[in-house]
Amino acid sequence: MNKANKPGYYGEWGGAFIPEVLYQTFCELNDAFRQAKADPAFWQQYVSLMGTYSCRPTPLTHAENLSRHFGGAQIYIKREDLNHTGAHKANNVMGQGLLVKRMGKTRVIAETGAGQHGVATATMAAKFGFACTIYMGEEDVQRQRPNVFWMEKLGATVVPVTSGSKTLKDAINEAFRDWVTRMDDTHYVMGTVCGPHPFPEMVAWFQSIIGREACGQIKQQFGRQPSRVYACVGGGSNAMGIFQGFLDNPAVELVGVEAGGKGLDSGMHASRLAARDGSAGVAQGYKTMFLQNSDGQMMDTHSVAAGLDYVGVSPILADLWQQKRVRFAAATDAEVMAALDLTMKKEGIIPALESAHAFVQAFKEAGEMGPDEAIIINMSGRGDKDIFTIAHAFDDPSWKEFIRKKGIAYGA
Amino acid sequence: MELSSHIKTALADRDRKILLMTHIVLGYPSLETNRQVIEQMVANGVDLIEMQIPFSEPMADGPVIVKANQEAIEHGITVRACLDFAREMTAAHPIPFLFMTYYNILFKFGVEKFFREAQEIGIKGFIIPDLPPEEGEEFFALSSEYDIAPILIFAPTSTPERMRELTRYSRGFVYCAARKGVTGRQTDFDEGFNAYLRTCRANTDLPLAVGFGISSREDVDYLTGKADIAVIGTRTIRLVEEQGAAAVGPFIAGLR
Q1: Which of A110, A170, A109 lies closest to A138 in space, CA to CA?
Q2: Least reliable range by pLDDT among A156-165, B9-18, B114-123
Q3: Residue B1 pLDDT exceeds 70
Q4: CA distance A270 to chain B (A)
Q5: Hey, CA dihedral for A4, A7, A10, A14, is it positive or negative?
Q6: Which residues of chain A have a CB within 8 Å of the CB of B181?
Q7: How far is B7 from chain A (nearest CA, A)?
Q8: Under an 8 A CB cutoff, do B62 and A177 touch?
C-alpha cells in the first residue's frame, strides 16, 4: 500500500508503532475520535466549553510599539497566554477531556515537560472528575517545581521519571508503560501532535481553533492575510494550531522556530529540522525526524525552555518541512532572553520562554518587511508563571537574594 | 533448521515437556558477563536465547530491563558490537538465538542490511515489540526472504480475530505476554490466565511461548502442559546483578 494512502501517515511520516497490548485500545480510540470529529455538535460543545471555562476566542494584539521599533511589518500577537492555565495546552486537553467522557473512561494520564501540559491535564481532570497521574522527568520536576505544586494541589499524582535523560521523552515512555498496564479505564492525554496515530491528527484538530480564530481576526483588524506566521516548535502543537488557519493560502509563509540552545554547532540544542543533526527514525510510537546517533539511540537535547526540549517533532510538521510549506529556523537561549526582555519592555507582555523563540525569528525578519505587511506571532503561553525559571535565566540578583532569605526562613 | 521444526524436535526428542527461553540484554553489565551467563544457560539446558540489542527508548520494558538498556548504552555498547558478539555466540553454542530489539535499531541500520547480517550470523528469529503487522510490510517480506522467523506477540487484550490475523504473519512460535503491562512484574496464574492461554492455543497452530513475570520452578511447572516455551527474562538479569554470573547455572538447572 502506498504510505500516502495509509491512515495516520503524512508523506512518509507518522504511523502507529504500538505494542500489541494496545491494539484494541487504539481501535477504540480511533473509532471514538472519528465519530466525534464527524459530529458537528461535538465541535460546538468544545467551542462552547472553551468560551466559558477558558478565554476563547483569545485576542489578537497589535504590537504597535514593537512594530515601530523594528520599522517594518505590523506585528500581531495571538494571545494563547490568555487561556485558562496560561497556555495553548488547555485547548487540546479540554478537547480530549470531552472525548474521554464520550469513551466512558475514568482516569487520565499524561506526560509533561515544562509542566504546562501536566497542569492543564490536572485542571481538566479536576473539572471532569477523572483520576489523574502525571509523568514528569526528574530533571523537569527540579526545573519546574511550581508546576508540580499546582498539579498536586489540583489533585493529580505527579510521578518523577528517573530513567533515560529524565526529560520529556522519558516521561512519554513511562506514560505508555502505565497505559499498557491500565488501558481499560485510562486514557493517555498525549500533549502534542506527536506519538502514534491518531494523536497527531487529534491534537492538531483541537489546536486548530487557534488558527481558525487568528485567520478571521487578522482579516478584521488588518484587512487582509499576514505575510508570515511564526510559532515555536517543540512537539509542534501550538504551531500546528495556528498554521492550520493559513495552510490553504500559499501566500502566507509559515515559520517554525526550534530550540537552538547554545547554538546549532554546539551539539546542545533541540533542532530536529533547522539543524543538520536530525535523521529519520521510529520511536515513541511514530516515525519522524529525531535527534539520534548513527545506531538510532536518542540523544540528549538542550533548551532553556523545557517545553521545546524534545528529540522528535510532529510527523505532520516533518511532512510540511519536506514539502517546503513550513520554513524552519532556530533561536538560541541567549537570543530568547533578549527577545523576552524587549517584549516585556515594549509591550508589557511576558511570553513564556518557549513562545519567545517565535518572537526571536519574527524580530529578525520584521525590519526587512514593509509597513503594509503584517506578521503574526503565536504566543503559545505566558511567562510570568515560570518566574523561577525566567528569573534564573536572567540571573537576577535581587531575586536570588529573595530566594536565599526564603531558604533561611524555611530552614529556621 | 527452521525455528518451529527445531522447537518441535526439541519437544519430542528430548522428551521435554516444556522448553526454556532466556533473555539477555547485550552489554549489560558487560559482554564478558553476557558470555559467561550464556555459557551457563546453555550448559544447564536452556533451549533458546533472545538477545536484546539495547535501545534508548524501550517502551515495552519494565524498570529492570529499562535500566539494563540504559546502562549498556552508557557503557558504550553499539549495534556493531552486538552483531559481532552474536556471531561469536551462534558459533559457540548449538541452540537457536533470537534478536529482540525495537524497530528503530533495524530502521537506522537499514532493515534489509540487518536481515542479511543476522542471517549470516545464524540468528533464527526477531522479536520487535513496537512493530505491528500494519507497519511491517518491508519487515515481513524480508523475514521470508532471509528465513528469519518473525515472532509476534499475543496480549491478553488480543481478540481471537486479532490472534488469527497475527498468526498469519508469525513463524517459529508466538510469544504470549502473560499479562498486561511491561516486563518484570509478577503474573497471577489464575483462571483468567488459563482461559487466555486456551484462546491463544485455539487461534494458532504455532508453539506458544509465555513470558512476563515467569521467575520460578513453580511458574514453569504451572505452564507445563499449557505452553511450549517458558520465557525467563527479568529474573536472571536481577540474579546476575545480585549474585553474579555464576548463580545463573544452578538457577536454570532448578527450573525444571
Answers
A1: A170
A2: B9-18
A3: no
A4: 17
A5: negative
A6: 21, 177, 180-181
A7: 24
A8: yes
* Strand A9-10 versus strand A13-14 pairing type: antiparallel
CATH fold, domain B3-153+214-253, is TIM Barrel (3.20.20)
Say yes or no to pLDDT of A112 above 80: yes
Looking at the fold, whether A154 and A238 belong to one and the same domain comes out as: no
Secondary structure class of A242 (helix, strand, coil) = helix
Band of pLDDT at residue A2, cut at 50, 70 and 90: very low
Numbered residues of chain A with Cβ closer than 8 Å to any chain B Cβ: 1, 15-25, 163-164, 169, 173, 176-177, 180-183, 279-285, 292, 294-298
Contacts of B52 in chain A (CB under 8 A): none
Q: Which of A25, A183, A297 sits opposite B56 (nearest CB)?
A: A297
Q: Does residue A262 sit in the same domain as residue A367? A: yes
Q: What's the pTM?
A: 0.96
Question: Do A328 and A315 share a domain, yes or no?
Answer: yes
Q: What is the pLDDT of residue A91?
A: 98
Q: Residue A6's pLDDT is what?
A: 84
Q: Are strands A74-79 and A60-62 parallel, antiparallel or unpaired?
A: antiparallel
* A-chain residues near B131 (CB < 8 A): 17
The grid coordinates of residue B48 equal: 533458546
- Domain holding A120, by residue range, is 10-51+88-200
For residue A4, the model assigns a pLDDT of 54
Amino acid residing at B139: F
A36 and A179 inside one domain: yes
Distance of residue B241 Cα from the nearest chain A Cα, in angstroms = 18
Q: Identify the DSSP state of A164.
A: T
Q: Are residues A71 and A109 in the same domain?
A: no
Percent of chain A scored above 70 by pLDDT? Answer: 99
